[in-house]
Every structure is written in structure tokens, then in C-alpha cells.
Automatic annotation (TrEMBL):
Superkingdom, taxonomy of origin: Bacteria
Protein name per Swiss-Prot or TrEMBL: Lysozyme
Length: 173
């Protein structure tokens, strides 16, 4: 039953990619991609390429940090935005490297909401999700899906993103 459900999710994700004009991979080809590439596709789909008026967010959701040389009002090309996304995602993967197979899932989560809500710090405790993973508990779906709030309210679009991330990135685990 779970595999049928996962296939349905993949088909829906592919339909979303085709509808939005992104790359048009088939279901089989999507799952043949390395997990990192699947994560890049998911982030690109949900973040979209930010326009200059979204400053200080540029590219595919990168928030400009003090000391970075990006200028307000300048649109990144798709190639520049892709390179920046991959650099940021690799940085987050390195942050969670000690979590092995879960590092990419945690990196995607941190890419969207920042590492503090997951790791703790800056007014946050270590997340229940991270505590379960550290304890070796693989029943993490509910905890992962709990990261779906915006301005304190449940957001169905973010919930859908989390669900697709989980299905496409935990397929190999």
C-alpha cells in the first residue's frame, strides 16, 4: 500500500513539474536521479526564482547575509540562482553530515526554515524530529510534517512540500 501511495505522489510531482514548465522527467527518470538532484528540483519548484523586489531573498530562496556581494535590485540568472541553491544545499548537507542518510532531508528542511528550528539555538530547543533521528527512531513522518507553519498558522502548501520532500527523499531509506 505504501509503495502505491509513493508512486501516486511521484506522479503528482511530475505533473506539477510539467505544468509549471520545469524539467519534464518521467516518474522512473525522477527516481533514477540522485537524491541531491531530486532535492534541487523540489526546492526549485516550491521556491521559484525570486524577483528583485523580494530583497533580501534572491535566487531560489537564498537570504542575503551581511558581507555577501549581492546588490539590491539585480536579478540573478537561472544559472546563478541554481549554483547558489546548490552551494547552500551542500552547506546544509555538511551541517547534518553526521545524520547519514537523513542529512539531505534535514538539509532541505533547513534550507526552507533555517537550521535553528531543527538544531536548536536562537530561542529554539532541539526539535523532536532531530531527537527521534538521534535515538534511531525511523517513525519521523509526523514530526517532519509538523514543520508546516507560516506566521504561526498551519499552511497547506508548506505541508504538501514537506510531504513530497519526505516521499521523494526517503524512498531510498
Amino acid at each position: 500500500m505504501r509503495n502505491k501511495f509513493r508512486i501516486l505522489v511521484i506522479v503528482l510531482f511530475v505533473c506539477i513539474c510539467i505544468e509549471s514548465g520545469s524539467a519534464q522527467p518521467t516518474v522512473r527518470r525522477l527516481m533514477e536521479l540522485p537524491p541531491f538532484e531530486r532535492a534541487v528540483l523540489i526546492i526549485k519548484h516550491y521556491e521559484t526564482l525570486h524577483r528583485p523586489e523580494h530583497w533580501p531573498t534572491i535566487g531560489y530562496g537564498h537570504v542575503v547575509q551581511p558581507g555577501e556581494s549581492y546588490r539590491k535590485g539585480v536579478q540573478l540568472t537561472e544559472r546563478q540562482a541554481d549554483a547558489l541553491l546548490r552551494k547552500d544545499l551542500r552547506k546544509f548537507c555538511a551541517l547534518y553530515r553526521s545524520y547519514g542518510a537523513d542529512s539531505l532531508l534535514l538539509a532541505c528542511l533547513s534550507y526552507n526554515c533555517g537550521p535553528a528550528p531543527v538544531l536548536g539555538g536562537k530561542g529554539y530547543k532541539k526539535s523532536r524530529l532531530l531527537r527521534r533521528i538521534e535515538a534511531g527512531d525511523r517513525n519521523i513522518l509526523a514530526d517532519y510534517l509538523s514543520f508546516c507553519h507560516y506566521k504561526g498558522k498551519h499552511h497547506s502548501g508548506i505541508w504538501r512540500r514537506r510531504w513530497i520532500e519526505y516521499q521523494l527523499l526517503c524512498a531510498d531509506l
